[in-house]
Write a structure and sequence with these properties.
mainly alpha, Arc Repressor Mutant, subunit A, Tetracycline Repressor, domain 2
Length: 243
């Protein structure tokens, strides 16, 4: 006995529709799936392209400065095109902002020390300061600082950029500093001001040493740098003695 199909029962013909000369449009669901699949396959490639642009842009800016670097130079260095760069960054300023933000991201992470390992606050401060100096005086950070110093007067964008980053870094650093030393040092009444005092008295002198007397800084031994650091810590402890 022949089994009747649903179309047989409804009386609809099972012959395929006649061709109209135009290809049938895919169902909306298929379109959505196709777009989602394309997105998943191109996203990793996009991340790789951005990484390449940021890395090549960093080298170009540090080598030639903000003024001396063009999008053409970055495109040539990264073996991409200007159109590709502009797809991710609307202009050179946006690219430079992303590069600086990436370069100093390390500084935003809280400094981690273990108070239990130190016999006194002075020893803890020295450990903390050494880590701050190491971050601050990384080769990449020093090169960025040179770009900042030599071009800040010529480009308002650079001044605004670094000021914004300094403000954000100051807030993060102040919270970290007070969390560690809040109950261990006296006269900590203003987190922002007191943490900045620590930076100016103890950490920044090593930055200036590396920037303005690089040969002297590079030739100094670890013992000599440690001695100088301890002397600065002792001066800071006069202002903020142990609790």
């Amino acid at each position: 006995m022949k089994t009747r199909t649903r179309s047989d029962r409804s009386g609809a013909s099972q012959d395929p529709p006649a061709s109209t000369g135009r290809s049938a449009r895919p169902a909306p669901r298929r379109k959505a799936v196709a777009r989602a699949t394309a997105s998943r396959t191109t996203q990793p490639r996009g991340d790789a392209v951005v990484e390449k642009i940021l890395a090549g842009g960093m080298d170009a800016f540090l080598e030639s400065g903000f003024e001396g670097t063009s999008v053409d130079v970055i495109a040539e260095r990264t073996r991409t095109s200007k159109a590709t760069i502009y797809r991710y960054f609307p202009d050179k300023e946006a690219l430079f902002t992303a590069i600086v933000d990436r370069a100093i991201e390390e500084r935003r992470r809280p400094v981690e020390v273990e108070p239990a390992r130190h016999a006194n606050v002075r020893s803890l401060l020295i450990d903390y300061a050494e880590q701050c100096v190491k971050r601050q005086n990384s080769p990449e950070r020093l090169r960025l600082c040179r770009v900042y110093m030599f071009e800040i007067q010529k480009f308002a964008v650079i001044e605004k950029l670094f000021s914004r980053f300094d403000d954000r870094d100051g807030e993060v650093f102040a919270a970290n500093f007070v969390q560690i030393f809040g109950g261990r040092l006296r006269n900590l009444t203003d987190p922002q001001r007191d943490s900045m005092t620590f930076m100016q008295m103890v950490v920044h002198p090593f930055l200036y040493w590396a920037l303005f007397r690089p040969r002297s800084y590079e030739s100094a031994s670890a013992a000599e740098r440690r001695k100088d650091l301890e002397a600065l810590i002792d001066k800071f402890l006069i202002v903020h003695p142990p609790a």
